[in-house]
Structure formats: structure tokens, C-alpha cells
Amino acid sequence: MTIPRAEAIKSLDNDAQFSIQHLTDGDVITWHTTPINDEKIDTELSRLQAEYDAQAYSRKREAEYPSIQECVHAILDDTLDALQAKRASVKLKYPKGG
Question: Cα 98 vs. chain centroid, distance in angstroms?
């Protein structure tokens, strides 16, 4: 996923009022409050994208972890070891920072 410019602007100033027109050769921002310069927006956009990308392992793990229903059944059926083994294999498949 690519972080939208609007998200970077709101991250810098949640009260900013603006509209964005998406054109094939770039975005045009119309400011209704004090503008934020493009360099600050680009820097924040890079920071947010890096933060999002660094959490890819977490999103992948979540998709493969046992469901809440599986966890409840494991507790009730006393099969926690199998549940923990499944979680461990997912963690090994998607290590932090990987």
C-alpha cells in the first residue's frame, strides 16, 4: 500500500483544510488554511511509508494466526501445545523486520 499525501498532511496538522486533485503528472493541493511546504509533506510521507512497511510481518502473521474461535477451542479442549506450535511456526515464517 502506498500512503496517500492526505494522510501525511493530516499527520503533520490534523486541522489542515485542503483539497487534492489527482492528475496523471502529480497531485495539485489547494489549501484552505496555512499551507505546509512540499518538503515537509514528502518527509512525513516517507516516514509514514517506512513505518507501514516495517509492520508488514505483523499483518502477514495476523492473517495466519489461529482465530479467536480456534483459541477458545484449544483452551476448552486442552490443546494449547498445538496452538502454540501453530503460532510459533507463523512467527518463524514471518520474523520481525522480515
Answer: 15
